[in-house]
Task: inverse folding
C-alpha cells in the first residue's frame, strides 16, 4: 500500500449502486425442466420404441452376413514339428493347403481378411515405432526418429522404418474353385486418404528387411509406398489384440456348397506369442461384419427402457405424489414422529 | 495559569482550532504526554474503548521496561550517519514492485510454484521427459502447464509494471529534510533513518517518524489515516513537551531514540527517548506513520525512525491470511481417496505388466511387436533395446501409469474453483439487494475462497451496537432533579427545535436537531434560580461540557448561517451535546485550555482545568471546570452502576430515588442510560486536587494508575443531577432478518457490551427474544456459583427438552409446540466460564437454547465465545460486527462479516465480507450462500466424476494393450479433455445455475438447512458418483469393444469414438443436472460438444499424426453412429432412473420447492389421501 495508489474515495464520485441488468441480478430468462412422471415415462417409452427396431434391424443385418473363418496356424505346421517357432523361423516358403466350403450363397463384394489373435498391434513399443514424416516425404528418408531398433541398417536409414513396417504380415493366400483360380483383387483395400496423403507417391522402400533379422514381408523397392497397399493397411495399427486386416476382395459370387481350395504361404511367426492366425472370407452389411452384439445391446436397452416405462407407470398409478405440494416439506411434516 | 495563557494566545486562531476533531482509538492511547494533552475521554458503554484503555494501562506498565539493546533500534536524532553506522537501515525507497527485469522470470515462477497443484503438474511433466517414461510428446505434456504459467505471468507482469510506475512517482516526491541547520528539499527515496523532517499541512508523510514539535504550541498534530486504515476522521498526535520548544534550526537536538524493531502493528509503538540525559517514554501517540496526511497543522517536525519497507504502512501492505472453506477441507478427504484409486489403478497395471512380461520373458525377442534386442549394429554386439530388465520395466510401467492417469487428481478443479468463486463474488458484489443507500456502499468480497461457507452457517454471532442497531444515538428523554421529561409522547409534529444562536453576527445552528420536550424547553429558557432551574442548568452544562467533542463550524450556502458539527468518536456524546444545544447550551468552541458554551444566547467561557478520561474500571468521566463566576465544579457522567456508588445519598434522597426509578424504566425501554452529577469544589479541595493532578500527569512511572486514583478521589460525594436516555435505533429490517435466520436453523448469539436490561429489551424489539421463551439468566460473581447455576439450568433444560439432541434442526427452529430457551449470560460470569472446565457445560446448555444473549462482554471474550463453539462442533460459525471490538471475533469465526458503519473500518479490514446493513445477511446467506454452496458442491463432485471417468476409460484400454499404457485417445485430446472439452460448462454452471429462485429461498428460510446438513456434498454422494463413474466408463469402453471385436477397426478411429462418446456423455450428465437453462448454459454445453468434435476433426486433419483422417473414415460408417447413440443412452440411464426415483419418492425440500415454484399455484388444493401418503412417506424417511 502506498499513499498514491490508495487515494481516498473522492466525494464527487458517482454512486456505487450496482446497475441493474438481468445478468448481474442473475435473472436471465431460463427454462427449468422438471422430471415429471409423464415426461420420464414418455422418454423411456420413446427410447424403447426407437431402440427395439434398430436392434431387430441390426440383428437381421448381422445374420445376413455370411462368414467363413478358418484357423490355420497350428494345422499348417506339420504334425512332426514339435517346435513351431523353430519351424516358422527356418527360411523357405512354407505352403499349406486348406479347403473351405461356402455355407450359403455369397454376393460380392466378398472380403478376404486375415485375423490375428493375441497380437498386440497396440503395444506401446510397437505402436510408436514408425515415422510418419518419412512415409510421406521422399526428402525425409533420413528421419527415423522413434523407429529404433529398426531405424538403420548398415548405417543407412531404412524406409519405411520402425517395428510396424518391419513386422509386415507375409502370409499369402490364393484361392481356386473347382481348379479355376478365383481372382482376389488387392486394389483399394486401404483408405484413400492414407494412399493420397499419408504415404508418398515418390517414396520408395530402401534398405527394407535387409538386416540380419527378418520380421515379415519384403517390399518391392520399385513401387512407391502409396501403392504398397498391404503395407498401408498394416500400418493402420489395430485397436485391439484380436483384429482383422483386409487382404483383398473377391468380385465373383460364391454359391452355396462351393468348395474353395486355398493355397497359403504360412510364413508369419505368431507362434512365439501363442498367436492364432485365421483366414476369414466374409460379406458385409450396412453395419459391417458379422457381430450380433450391437443388435442384442439395442434390444436389451430398448427392452429395459420399456420395462422401466411400465414400472414407472405402475408406481405412478399406485403411489402418486403431488408435485410441489408444500405439505411434503420437511418442516411441514408432523414433528412428532421419530 | 499556563492554561489560560494558551487559551488567550489561541483565540486569534479560532478557526483552526475549532476545526480540530479529536478522534479515534489511537488518540486515546495518548501515552506519555504532559498536562495539556488533557486526553480524550470517552463515554462508557462501548467496550471497544474499554479494551483500548485496558491495553493502554498495560502499555504504561510496559513502557518503562528497558527495551533490550538487541531488540531495539537506536536512532540518533539528526545524526543519520551515526544512526546508520552499525546497521544499515533500509532506505526510504519503496519497492512495492516485486520484480525487476532480470528477476522477473525466476521469481515469478518460484512464486507460482507455491501452489501444490502446479508442483504436481511439474513433477508429472518432468517424469514425462525421461525417455523411458515418455508417454506424451513433449509439447502435449508441457503445454497446459506452460499456458497457465504464462497467463499468470503476464497478469503479474502487468500488475508489477503498474506498481513500479507508482513507486517511481512515490520515491521521487520531495520532503524537507534538516541539513546543516537548514531544511532542504530532498527526494523521498534519499531519506535516512535519523534525519529530521519537516512536513507541512496536507502533505503526506514520507516515513514513520517520531514527532518533535509542531506549529501548535501544545505540540498537537492532526493526521488523517485514511490510507492506513481507511478511517477518515482526524487523529491527534503529540510531540513531547521536552522537544517541543526547541526549534530544530536553531539549537541542535541531540538525543537517542531507542525503539522496537519494525513491526506491522499500526496501533502500537514503544520507545524511549534519551534527551539531555533524561529518559522519556514514547508511545503510539507520538509517532506519525507513512501514508498519513498532516491536517489542520501548519507544520510538524519529526525524526525518521522507520523508513521504506520497514514502515508500518509497508509492513501492513501484505494481504490478510487466507481462510479455507470447509467444503474444500472436506474435499481433501475425497482427494486422498482418489489418490488411492490412482495408486490402485497403477498397481493393477504394473502387476498385469509383470505377469505378462514374466510369461513371455524368454520369448520377448522373437515377438515381432516387442523386439527386445537391437540388431541394427549387426549380430556382434546385441543390446537390449529400451528394455531394462523385468523389475525396472515394472517400475517404469508404474510411473508411466501415474503419468497417464494423472488427471485422476483433478488439478484443473482448483483452477475452476477459483474462477467460479470470482464469478460468484462478481454476482454478490453486483447484487442490488445488498447495496446500502445510506453509506453508498456495495457488498464487498474481501476473501475469495470461502464463498461456499456462506451456505452452511449454523451459528451467527452478532455484535449489537452498530450491527443490530444503527449506532446513531438519539437523545430521547431525561430525568432531571427527579422529574421525568420524556419527550416520547409529549412531542408534537413541528416540534423539531431549530435552535440558533447569534455569534459574532452569524447565526450558528447545530447540525442535528433534536425533538425537544416543550415543557423542559420552557423551563430551560426561563432562567430561574429555583432548585429545579439550577438542576436543569447544571444538567445541560454537564452534557455540553463533560465530553471530548470538538465543534466544527461549517459554512452553508447562506453566508449568515453556520452549522455546528460536533466531531468525536462517541455517538452518545454527540447525541448528548446536540441535545444540550437544542435546549440552549451550545458548545461552540473548544481549545486545549477552555471551552466556550453559548448559554441561552450568552457566550460563556469555561476553563477546562482537568479532565479525567473514561476508563473501564470507573466507567465514568469527569471534567473540572472553572466557571465564569470563579467557582470550580466537577461534572461527572457515567454508567449508573458506578455512579450510584459515588453519589452523595444523604443529599436529596428523593431525587436519587426518583432518578433510580426513571433509570430502570429507561433501560427497560431499551435506552442507553447515563447518570450525570456535579460537585462544587472548594478552593482547598481544588488546590489539593490540582497538585495531585499535576504530580500524576507528570509522573514517569504508572501515570495511568495515578491519574485514575486522582480521579477517584475527586469523583466523590457527587450530587445527582439526573439521567439521560439515549435511543440507539434498530437498523431497518433487523427483526425480520433475525426471524429469518432463526427460521433457517441458525442459532443467533448476540454479544454486546450493554447492560443486561438494555440487552434484553433490544432482544425483544429485535424479535430475538419472544414472549414464549423461557429465559435462563446466568449472572454470577464466583466460579462456584456459576458452576451451580449452570448445572441446575442444564438439568432444567434437559427436562424441558428431553430429546433436543436427536430432534431435527428444522423442527427445533420452527419450534412447533416446544418450549424455547433463551440463555442470557453476562461478562462477569463468562470470566469464570471461559478457559475453564465450565466451558463444556456452558456449551451443552447453550446448544439447547435457540438464543444466547451475552451482555457486558469484552472484545476478547467475544472471540472466546466464538472459539468455545468452534472448538466443540464442526458447525460453521459466522461473526458479524462493525467495530474494532469485533475484530477478534470476526477473525476467529469461520466467516467474518464486517459492517461498514459508523465505527471506522477496522472490522471491515479484518472481515471476509463486508456490507452496509445487518439485514443484508439474509440475501447473503439464504440466497447467495445457498447458491454458492450448491453450485460449488455440485461442481466438485462433478469434477471428480468427470476426470475419473476418463481415467477409467484409459485404464480399461490399458488392460487390452498388454499393460503398456498405450492410449487410443490421441495425446492432444487427453490434454484438451479437461481444458477445452469439458471444463467450460462446469464453470458456467458453477457460476450461473440456481436451484431455486431468490423469492422462494427468502420465502422459505428453512431451505437453508440443506447446506447445514451437507446435503449437496457428502460421502454418499461421492460414492454414488464413483459408482456412476465406473458404470459409465464401462459402457463407454466395452460397448464399442464388443462391437468391434474381430474387426478391422484401427486404434485412432476407436480412440476418436471414445473421445467423442465420453465428452458427450460427460456433458449430457451435466445437462441432466442443470436446473436452469439460460442461453449461456445452452451455449456452454452444446458449444463444448461442438468444440470437441471440431478439435477431433482438426487433429485428424493433420497428416503428420498417425491418426490421420480416422474420424472421417469412421464417421462414414453407420456402426459409429449406432454405437454413439446406445452409449449415451446406456451410460446415462441408471443415473436418470435413480434421479427420478429419488426426486419423486424421496424428495428433499429443495426438490419440492422447485416443483412448487413451477406448479405451486396450480395445485393448491390438497387431497386428504395425499396427506396420508405424505405422512407414511415421512415416517419411512426417518
Result:
Amino acid at each position: 500500500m502506498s499513499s498514491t495508489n490508495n487515494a481516498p474515495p473522492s466525494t464527487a464520485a458517482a454512486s456505487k449502486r450496482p446497475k441493474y441488468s438481468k445478468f448481474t441480478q442473475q435473472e436471465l430468462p431460463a427454462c427449468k425442466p422438471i422430471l415429471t412422471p409423464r415426461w420420464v415415462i414418455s422418454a423411456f417409452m420413446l427410447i424403447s420404441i426407437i431402440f427395439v427396431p434398430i436392434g431387430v434391424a441390426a440383428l437381421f443385418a448381422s445374420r445376413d452376413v455370411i462368414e467363413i473363418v478358418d484357423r490355420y496356424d497350428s494345422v499348417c505346421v506339420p504334425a512332426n514339428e514339435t517346435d513351431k517357432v523353430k519351424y516358422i523361423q527356418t527360411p523357405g516358403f512354407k505352403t499349406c493347403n486348406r479347403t473351405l466350403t461356402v455355407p450359403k450363397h455369397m454376393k460380392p463384394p466378398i472380403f478376404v481378411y486375415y485375423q490375428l489373435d493375441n497380437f498386440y498391434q497396440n503395444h506401446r513399443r510397437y505402436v510408436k515405432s514408425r515415422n510418419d514424416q518419412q512415409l510421406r516425404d521422399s526428402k525425409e528418408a533420413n528421419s527415423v526418429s522413434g523407429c529404433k531398433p529398426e531405424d538403420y541398417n548398415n548405417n543407412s536409414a531404412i524406409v519405411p522404418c520402425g517395428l510396424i513396417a518391419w513386422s509386415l504380415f507375409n502370409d499369402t493366400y490364393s484361392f481356386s474353385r473347382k481348379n479355376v483360380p478365383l481372382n482376389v483383387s488387392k486394389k483399394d483395400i486401404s483408405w484413400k486418404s492414407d494412399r493420397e496423403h499419408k504415404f508418398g507417391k515418390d517414396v520408395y522402400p530402401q534398405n527394407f528387411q535387409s538386416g540380419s533379422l527378418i520380421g515379415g514381408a519384403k517390399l518391392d523397392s520399385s513401387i512407391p509406398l502409396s501403392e504398397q497397399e498391404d503395407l498401408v493397411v498394416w500400418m493402420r495399427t489395430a485397436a485391439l489384440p484380436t483384429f482383422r486386416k483386409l487382404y483383398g476382395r473377391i468380385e465373383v459370387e460364391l454359391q452355396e456348397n462351393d468348395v474353395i481350395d486355398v493355397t497359403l504361404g504360412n510364413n508369419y511367426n505368431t507362434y512365439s506369442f501363442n498367436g492364432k492366425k485365421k483366414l476369414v472370407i466374409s460379406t458385409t452389411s450396412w453395419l459391417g461384419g458379422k457381430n450380433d452384439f450391437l443388435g442384442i445391446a439395442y434390444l436389451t436397452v430398448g427392452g429395459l427402457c420399456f420395462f422401466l416405462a411400465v414400472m414407472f407407470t405402475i408406481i405412478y398409478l399406485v403411489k402418486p405424489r403431488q408435485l410441489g405440494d408444500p405439505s411434503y416439506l420437511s418442516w411441514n411434516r408432523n414433528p412428532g414422529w421419530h | 495559569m499556563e492554561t489560560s495563557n494558551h487559551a488567550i494566545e489561541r483565540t486569534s486562531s479560532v478557526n483552526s482550532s475549532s476545526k480540530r476533531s479529536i478522534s479515534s482509538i489511537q488518540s486515546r492511547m495518548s501515552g506519555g504526554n504532559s498536562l495539556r494533552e488533557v486526553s480524550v475521554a470517552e463515554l462508557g458503554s462501548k467496550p471497544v474503548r474499554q479494551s483500548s484503555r485496558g491495553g493502554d494501562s498495560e502499555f504504561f506498565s510496559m513502557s518503562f521496561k528497558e527495551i533490550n539493546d538487541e531488540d531495539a533500534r537506536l536512532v540518533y536524532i539528526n545524526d543519520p550517519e551515526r544512526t546508520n553506522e552499525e546497521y544499515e537501515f533500509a532506505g526510504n525507497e519503496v519497492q512495492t514492485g516485486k520484480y525487476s527485469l532480470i528477476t522477473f522470470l525466476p521469481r515469478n515462477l518460484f512464486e507460482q510454484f507455491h501452489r501444490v497443484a502446479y508442483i504436481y503438474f511439474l513433477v508429472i511433466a518432468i517424469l514425462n521427459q525421461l525417455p523411458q517414461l515418455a508417454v506424451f510428446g513433449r509439447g502435449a505434456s508441457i503445454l497446459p502447464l506452460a499456458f497457465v504459467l504464462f497467463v499468470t505471468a503476464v497478469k503479474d507482469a502487468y500488475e508489477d509494471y503498474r506498481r513500479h510506475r507508482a513507486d517511481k512517482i512515490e520515491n521521487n516526491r520531495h520532503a524537507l529534510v534538516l541539513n546543516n541547520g537548514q531544511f532542504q528539499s530532498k527526494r523521498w527515496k534519499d531519506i535516512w533513518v535519523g534525519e529530521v523532517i519537516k512536513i507541512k499541512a496536507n502533505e503526506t508523510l514520507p516515513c514513520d517518524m517520531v514527532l518533535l514539535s509542531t506549529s501548535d504550541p501544545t505540540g498537537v498534530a492532526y493526521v488523517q489515516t485514511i490510507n492506513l486504515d481507511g478511517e477518515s476522521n482526524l487523529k491527534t498526535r503529540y510531540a513531547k513537551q521536552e522537544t517541543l520548544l526547541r526549534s530544530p534550526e536553531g539549537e541542535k537536538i541531540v538525543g537517542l531514540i531507542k525503539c522496537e524493531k519494525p513491526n506491522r502493528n499500526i496501533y502500537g509503538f514503544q520507545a524511549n527517548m534519551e534527551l539531555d540525559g533524561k529518559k522519556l517514554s514514547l508511545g503510539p501517540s507520538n509517532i506519525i506513520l507513512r501514508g498519513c496526511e498532516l491536517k489542520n497543522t501548519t507544520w510538524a517536525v519529526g525524526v525518521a525512525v522507520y523508513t521504506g519497507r520497514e514502515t508500518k504502512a509497508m509492513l501492513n501492505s501484505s494481504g490478510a491470511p487466507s481462510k479455507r472453506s470447509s467444503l474444500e477441507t472436506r474435499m481433501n478427504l475425497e482427494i486422498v481417496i482418489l489418490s488411492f484409486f490412482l495408486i490402485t489403478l497403477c498397481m493393477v497395471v504394473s502387476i498385469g505388466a509383470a505377469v505378462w512380461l514374466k510369461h513371455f520373458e524368454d520369448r520377448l525377442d522373437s515377438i515381432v511387436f516387442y523386439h527386445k534386442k537391437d540388431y541394427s549394429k549387426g549380430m556382434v554386439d546385441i543390446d537390449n533395446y529400451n528394455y531394462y530388465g523385468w523389475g525396472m520395466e515394472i517400475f517404469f510401467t508404474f510411473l508411466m501409469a501415474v503419468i497417464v492417469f494423472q488427471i485422476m487428481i483433478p488439478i484443473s478443479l482448483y483452477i475452476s474453483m477459483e474462477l467460479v468463486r470470482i464469478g460468484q463474488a462478481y454476482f454478490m458484489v453486483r447484487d442490488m439487494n445488498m447495496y446500502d443507500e445510506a453509506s453508498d456502499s456495495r457488498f464487498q468480497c474481501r476473501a475469495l475462497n470461502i464463498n461456499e461457507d456462506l451456505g452452511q452457517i449454523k451459528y451467527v454471532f452478532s455484535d449489537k451496537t452498530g450491527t443490530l442497531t444503527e449506532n446513531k444515538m438519539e437523545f430521547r428523554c431525561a430525568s432531571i432533579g427527579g422529574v421525568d421529561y420524556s419527550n416520547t409522547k409529549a412531542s408534537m409534529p413541528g416540534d423539531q427545535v431549530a435552535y440558533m444562536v447569534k455569534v459574532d453576527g452569524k447565526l450558528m445552528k447545530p447540525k442535528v436537531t433534536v425533538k425537544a420536550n416543550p415543557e423542559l424547553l420552557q423551563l430551560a429558557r426561563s432562567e430561574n434560580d429555583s432548585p429545579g432551574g439550577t438542576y436543569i442548568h447544571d444538567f445541560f452544562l454537564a452534557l455540553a461540557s463533560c465530553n471530548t467533542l470538538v465543534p466544527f463550524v461549517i459554512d452553508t450556502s447562506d453566508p449568515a448561517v453556520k452549522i455546528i458539527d460536533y466531531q468525536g468518536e462517541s455517538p452518545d456524546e454527540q447525541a448528548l451535546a446536540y441535545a444540550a444545544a437544542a435546549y440552549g447550551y451550545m458548545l461552540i468552541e473548544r481549545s486545549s485550555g477552555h471551552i466556550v458554551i453559548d448559554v441561552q444566547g450568552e457566550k460563556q467561557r469555561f476553563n477546562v482545568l482537568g479532565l479525567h478520561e473514561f476508563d473501564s474500571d470507573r466507567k465514568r468521566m469527569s471534567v473540572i471546570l472553572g466557571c465564569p463566576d470563579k467557582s470550580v465544579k466537577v461534572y461527572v457522567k457515567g454508567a449508573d452502576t458506578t455512579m450510584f456508588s459515588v453519589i452523595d445519598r444523604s443529599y436529596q434522597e428523593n431525587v436519587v430515588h426518583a432518578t433510580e426509578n426513571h433509570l430502570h424504566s429507561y433501560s427497560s425501554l431499551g435506552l442507553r442510560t447515563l447518570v450525570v452529577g456535579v460537585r462544587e469544589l472548594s478552593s482547598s479541595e481544588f488546590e489539593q486536587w490540582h497538585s495531585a493532578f499535576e504530580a500524576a500527569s507528570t509522573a514517569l512511572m504508572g501515570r495511568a494508575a495515578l491519574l485514575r486514583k486522582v480521579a477517584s478521589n475527586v469523583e466523590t460525594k457527587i450530587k445527582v443531577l439526573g439521567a439521560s436516555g439515549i435511543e440507539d435505533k434498530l437498523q431497518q429490517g433487523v427483526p425480520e432478518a433475525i426471524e429469518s435466520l432463526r427460521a433457517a436453523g441458525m442459532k443467533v448469539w448476540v454479544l454486546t457490551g450493554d447492560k443486561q436490561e438494555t440487552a434484553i429489551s433490544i432482544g425483544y424489539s429485535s424479535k430475538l427474544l419472544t414472549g414464549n421463551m423461557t429465559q435462563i439468566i446466568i449472572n454470577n460473581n464466583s466460579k462456584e456459583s456459576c458452576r451451580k447455576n449452570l448445572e441446575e439450568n442444564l438439568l432444567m433444560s434437559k427436562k424441558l427438552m428431553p430429546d433436543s439432541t436427536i430432534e431435527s434442526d428444522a423442527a427445533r427452529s420452527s419450534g412447533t409446540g416446544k418450549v424455547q430457551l433463551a440463555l442470557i449470560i453476562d461478562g462477569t460470569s463468562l470470566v469464570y466460564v471461559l478457559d475453564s472446565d465450565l466451558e463444556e457445560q456452558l456449551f451443552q446448555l447453550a446448544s439447547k437454547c435457540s438464543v444466547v444473549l451475552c451482555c457486558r462482554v469484552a472484545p476478547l471474550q467475544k472471540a472466546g465465545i466464538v472459539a468455545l463453539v468452534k472448538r466443540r462442533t464442526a458447525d460453521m460459525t459466522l461473526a458479524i460486527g462493525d467495530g474494532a471490538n469485533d475484530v477478534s471475533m470476526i477473525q476467529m469465526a469461520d466467516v467474518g462479516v464486517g459492517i461498514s458503519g459508523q465505527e471506522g473500518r477496522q472490522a471491515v479490514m479484518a472481515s471476509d465480507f463486508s456490507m452496509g446493513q445487518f439485514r443484508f445477511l439474509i440475501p447473503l446467506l439464504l440466497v447467495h450462500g445457498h447458491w454458492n454452496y450448491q453450485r460449488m458442491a455440485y461442481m466438485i463432485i462433478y469434477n471428480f466424476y468427470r476426470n475419473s471417468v476418463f481415467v477409467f476409460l484409459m485404464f480399461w484400454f490399458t488392460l487390452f494393450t498388454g499393460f503398456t499404457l498405450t492410449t487410443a485417445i490421441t495425446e492432444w485430446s487427453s490434454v484438451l479433455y479437461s481444458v477445452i472439452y469439458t471444463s467450460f460448462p462446469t464453470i458456467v454452471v458453477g457460476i450461473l445455475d440456481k436451484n431455486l429462485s431468490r423469492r422462494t429461498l427468502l420465502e422459505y428460510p428453512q431451505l437453508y438447512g440443506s447446506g447445514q446438513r451437507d446435503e449437496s456434498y457428502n460421502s454418499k454422494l461421492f460414492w454414488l458418483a464413483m459408482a456412476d463413474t465406473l458404470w459409465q466408463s464401462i459402457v463407454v469402453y466395452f460397448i464399442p469393444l464388443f462391437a468391434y471385436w474381430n474387426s478391422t477397426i484401427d486404434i485412432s478411429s476407436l480412440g476418436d469414438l471414445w473421445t467423442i462418446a465420453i465428452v458427450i456423455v460427460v456433458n449430457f450428465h451435466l445437462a441432466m443436472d442443470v436446473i436452469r437453462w439460460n442461453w449461456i448454459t445452452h451455449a456452454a454445453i452444446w458449444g463444448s460438444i461442438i468444440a470437441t468434435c471440431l478439435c477431433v476433426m482438426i487433429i485428424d486433419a493433420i497428416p503428420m499424426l498417425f491418426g490421420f483422417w480416422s474420424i472421417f473414415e469412421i464417421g462414414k460408417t453407420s456402426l459409429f453412429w449406432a454405437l454413439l447413440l446406445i452409449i449415451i443412452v446406456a451410460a446415462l440411464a441408471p443415473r436418470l432412473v435413480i434421479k427420478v426415483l429419488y426426486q419423486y419418492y424421496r424428495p428433499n425440500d429443495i426438490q419440492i420447492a422447485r416443483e412448487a415454484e413451477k406448479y405451486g399455484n396450480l395445485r393448491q388444493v390438497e387431497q386428504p389421501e395425499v396427506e396420508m401418503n405424505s405422512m407414511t412417506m415421512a415416517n419411512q424417511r426417518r
Summary: Residues 921-958 of chain B form the longest helix (38 residues). The CA atoms of residues 383 and 545 of chain B lie 102 Å apart. Chain B touches chain A through 140 residues (CB under 8 Å).
